Amino acid sequence: MSAFSNTSDLTPIKIWDGVVARAVDGAEATLALIDLEPNTHVPEHHHANEQTGILIGGSMSFTIGDETKEIEPGEMWVIPADVPHSVVSGPEGARLAELFAPPRADWAGLERLSATPVTLP
Fold first, then answer.
1. Distance from the CA of 62 to the CA of which of 42, 75, 77, 118 falls in 20 to 30 A?
2. What is the DSSP secondary structure assignment for residue 112, as one 8-state letter?
3. Which domains does the chain have, with CATH numbers?
4. How many whole angstroms separate alpha carbon 57 and alpha carbon 60?
């Protein structure tokens, strides 16, 4: 198995309606490129994984705990384990990269979608 991957070769994972991830798992973490369709609402949720990320393109309103911020490309976040959070993507959608530790084992049972090419900025 190679140490290298290309996002276009990764099987898209449907996380929620309007939210698709392409992920690679290591022994200690999952790295995911996540696309949100325009005006998509990710409901409040929490998980045992610490979550760090950066917005690559688009915009979103991010609520972490009791703090809400309008996020623009280049902005980053850290969500400690088990802290409730939610997102609403902007009118152009959003592309983000996120690291989850430990790996997202719970994604194993989610729907896999047909692979499509990924265009990066």
1. 118
2. B
3. 27-108 (2.60.120.10)
4. 10
